[in-house]
Amino acid sequence: MNILVTGGAGFIGSHLVQTLLLQGHKVITLDDLSAGREAFLQEAIHHENHTFIQGSVLNRTLIKQCIDQAEAVFHLAAVLGVKNTVDDPVKVIEGNIDGTRHVLELAFRRGIKVIFASTSEVYGKNTSLPFSETSDRVYGAPSIHRWCYATAKSIDEHLCFAFADKGLPVTVLRYFNAYGPRQMNSQYGMVIPRFIHAALSGQPLLVHGDGSQSRCFTYVDDTVRGTISALGRQADGLAFNIGSNRPTTVLQLARMIVKMTGSKSPIQFLSYEEAYGKGYEDMPARIPDLTRSSALLGFSPRVSLEDGIGRTIHWSRGK
Ligand SMILES: NC(=O)c1ccc[n+]([C@@H]2O[C@H](COP(=O)([O-])OP(=O)(O)OC[C@H]3O[C@@H](n4cnc5c(N)ncnc54)[C@H](O)[C@@H]3O)[C@@H](O)[C@H]2O)c1
Asked: What region does 6 belong to: left with phi over 0, alpha with psi -120 to 50, or beta?
């Protein structure tokens, strides 16, 4: 199959491209390299079935050229991370909505499948756990920038479902905290690369708040497997949670990383205000209900947190 992957030089995208090539697909990777790296495609770049195009999903002419050659699109290009969300909300809103609209409109013209990378952030601060795909969104006030990424991804989802009603085969995937090799420490303040970097360089691991907030950390191979399983027609017109359903608190995570790296780094606490400025809101927990993903996609996470963290530490040491 000829497949377009937007954001394919990023963390999840580069693993996805590699797996699609291994499965025998022809892949066009489109990425503006704003966050991604060509080096992440090292194993793909010289593959005869791979084409890399440096460019933006905001460039409609370019997207059209790519979509004209594709039979399916994995749309992962996005501006993400709590840090971007707080520091540059305009970039987050434009970067996430305009490109998705181009992709959906142009794919609709050709009737080709779109798989859209959404996020567990769309559930916001809903406290009824676990989140099923029909759970409510609960957000703070629009004056709090922290909610602009979730809002932008929600608008993207609305667009996906609107095009689904018109007949576009489109699937929405809500990723829960993916992690693994190639997730970078610097860009967005993602917790696992940040902790591993601190532990390996002898700096303190800075836990935001009291560390009791929990997340379901998902190894990238599981995320990619769930993503590819959405190519099937049974997934059309639906959203799916893709992630681990084992919650781990941020403090447990910090202790695990200190232990597994053998680091002497201390664990220190930083208030949300010190980390992100006034008015930051965080969710105490996020857990996916995997009933639908398991029934329709055959998805269940396979890599344990200990195993995944071990592989990520190994990669970080060799960087
Ligand atoms: N990592 C996670 O835990 C997580 C969780 C939920 C959802 N997601 C979603 O998964 C997708 C991939 O995330 P990731 O973690 O790999 O992040 P990432 O930043 O590594 O990947 C995004 C890629 O998109 C590219 N990009 C950004 N704007 C672009 C544009 N206008 N045109 C072309 N390329 C552009 C970046 O250069 C980058 O390579 C995103 O849509 C993200 O919102 C990720």
From this structure: beta
